[in-house]
């Protein structure tokens, strides 16, 4: 067999391996992704300006100053060259300055929270054009997309009109994921009880795939969704198909969808609870749970004191253990004041309170039976206070002398 044919056969495995490559990152359809591609290419070329000469000179010096080359100059006392020092230090310094400038500009111009000011390099965003809002929820292990403007929702199916700015509001239901559509824009994380944003635009029709680029458990490898950039008429047809579905996305339907599942087929919902995304973000989709925003508002005011005694179960977001699994804990109850110093301050304040200022209404728990305890205060020796008859923390007690 000729040597030429043997070389061709030797290259065949490499050709087969490259045949499975997808250059979608280098061939995007969105302006943001195109700018990120350009940043990647320019940065690579700048670094190659150093890497290639160094690799070439390494081979050149090894060949020229080999032991068998007696014609090469031999100077064992050589130790310094000003010209060589200038070349060695100036070239990398200039490249670092260029890379720093590119990174600084790219960090600000391609900030995912920054609204778009252009649709492409030649076309600014027209006046009066508003972005299409898409609310994204990373679930275990599928993606939920809510379209507030259209009043629909889909699972593992994302569509957008060509040429209209997109504004994604992204969160997660349990663990952290990363929302990534290579043809559209860069990656951004999806985290529970937090909201991230991403602005992007699709400049031409495309049918591609998005996925999670952050490992999130057993079903991570199948956590893909379809992304399509469609002409306006086709996008409206896609919306009409979703509206034709007879499945509404209520809170109860979401709680069922939220349960971990793999290889979930595309689903469409004709209507969506308008408050669902904010409830997901604030961890209060399940009935009876206090929203995180309300809890933070109470904490910002210093709490509500003894009058806020209540069941802490609505404050606990444990969506698996609290839904019937064997690891679910029993309800617990909290009463503050917790420290003798706080109790002493409260007693001092109550001593100067006018008669009748303290409510005689018993402190109520979550429907548990009551028992009456007597606690001393400075206003009166014994004041009856009703507390839940549970084994939990019972409330302010007399400071001990120990």
UniProtKB/TrEMBL annotation:
Keyword Transmembrane tagged = yes
Name by which UniProt lists this protein: Ubiquinol oxidase polypeptide II
Known Pfam families for this protein?
A: COX_ARM
Mind telling me which PANTHER family this protein's record contains? CYTOCHROME BO(3) UBIQUINOL OXIDASE SUBUNIT 2, CYTOCHROME C OXIDASE, SUBUNIT II
Membrane topology type: Multi-pass membrane protein
For the keyword Transit peptide, the answer is no
The UniProt entry's sequence similarity note says: Belongs to the cytochrome c oxidase subunit 2 family.
Q: Where in the cell is it found?
A: Cell membrane
Keyword set, alphabetical order: Cell membrane, Electron transport, Lipoprotein, Membrane, Oxidoreductase, Palmitate, Respiratory chain, Signal, Transmembrane, Transmembrane helix, Transport
Protein origin, superkingdom: Bacteria
Q: What molecular function terms (GO) are annotated for this protein?
A: copper ion binding; cytochrome bo3 ubiquinol oxidase activity; cytochrome-c oxidase activity; oxidoreductase activity, acting on diphenols and related substances as donors, oxygen as acceptor
Q: Which residues form the Cytochrome oxidase subunit II transmembrane region profile domain?
A: 17-114
Report the source organism: Ancylobacter dichloromethanicus
Q: Which residues form the Cytochrome oxidase subunit II copper A binding domain?
A: 129-241
Q: Which InterPro entries match?
A: CcO_II, CcO_II-like_C, COX_ARM, Cupredoxin, CuRO_UO_II, Cyt_c_oxidase_su2_TM_dom, Cyt_c_oxidase_su2_TM_sf, Cyt_o_ubiquinol_oxidase_su2
Q: Where are the transmembrane segments?
A: 39-65, 86-106
Q: Which GO terms describe its biological process?
A: ATP synthesis coupled electron transport
The entry's cellular-component GO terms read: plasma membrane
């Amino acid at each position: 067999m000729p040597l030429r044919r043997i070389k061709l056969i030797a290259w065949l495995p490499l050709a087969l391996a490259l045949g499975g490559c997808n250059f979608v990152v280098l061939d995007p359809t969105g302006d943001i992704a195109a700018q990120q591609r350009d940043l990647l290419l320019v940065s690579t070329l700048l670094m190659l300006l150093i890497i290639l000469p160094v690799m070439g000179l390494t081979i050149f010096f090894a060949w020229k100053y080999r032991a068998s080359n007696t014609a090469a100059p031999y100077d064992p006392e050589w130790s310094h060259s000003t010209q060589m020092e200038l070349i060695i230090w100036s070239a990398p310094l200039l490249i670092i300055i260029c890379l720093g400038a590119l990174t600084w500009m790219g960090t600000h111009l391609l900030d995912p929270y920054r609204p778009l000011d252009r649709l492409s390099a030649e076309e600014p965003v027209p006046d009066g054009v508003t972005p299409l809002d898409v609310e994204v929820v990373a679930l275990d292990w599928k993606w939920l997309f809510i379209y507030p403007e259209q009043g629909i929702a889909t699972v593992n199916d994302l569509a957008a009109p060509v040429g209209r700015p997109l504004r994604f509001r992204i969160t997660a239901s349990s663990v952290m994921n990363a929302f990534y559509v290579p043809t559209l824009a860069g990656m951004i994380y999806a985290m529970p009880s937090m909201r991230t944003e991403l602005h992007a635009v699709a400049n031409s029709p495309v049918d591609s795939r998005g996925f999670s680029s952050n490992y999130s458990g057993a079903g991570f490898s199948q956590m893909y969704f379809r992304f399509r950039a469609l002409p306006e008429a086709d996008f409206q047809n896609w919306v009409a198909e979703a509206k034709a579905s007879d499945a509404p996305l209520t809170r109860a339907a979401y709680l069922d969808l939220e349960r971990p599942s793999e290889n979930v087929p595309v689903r469409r919902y004709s209507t969506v609870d308008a408050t669902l995304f904010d409830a997901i973000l604030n961890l209060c989709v399940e009935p009876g749970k206090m929203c995180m925003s309300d809890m933070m508002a109470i904490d910002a005011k210093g709490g509500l004191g003894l009058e806020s005694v209540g069941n802490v179960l609505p404050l606990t977001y444990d969506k698996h253990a609290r839904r019937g699994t064997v690891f679910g804990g029993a309800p617990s109850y909290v009463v503050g004041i917790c420290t003798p110093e706080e109790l002493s301050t409260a007693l001092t304040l109550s001593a100067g309170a006018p008669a009748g200022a303290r409510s005689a209404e018993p402190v109520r728990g979550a429907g548990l039976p009551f028992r009456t305890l007597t606690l001393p205060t400075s206003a009166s020796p014994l004041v009856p206070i009703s507390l839940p008859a549970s084994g939990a923390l019972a409330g302010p007690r007399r400071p001990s002398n120990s």
